[in-house]
Amino acid sequence: MTKKQTLRIATYNINGINSRLPVLLRWLEEARPHVVGLQELKCTDEAFPAKDIEAFGYSAIWHGQKSWNGVALLSRVGEPVETGRGLPGDPNDEQSRYIEAAICGILIGNLYLPNGNPWPGPKFDYKLAWMDRLDAYARHLLDSGLPAMLMGDFNVIPTEQDVYKPERWAKDALFSPQAREKFKVLVAQGWTDALRSLHPDERIYTFWHYWRNSFQRDAGIRIDHLLLSPPLAEKLVKAGVDREPRGWDKTSDHAPTWIELKV
DNA sequence: ATGACGCTACGATAGCGA
Question: Which end of chain A is more exposed for a tag (fewer CB within 10 A), N or C?
Answer without folding.
Answer: N
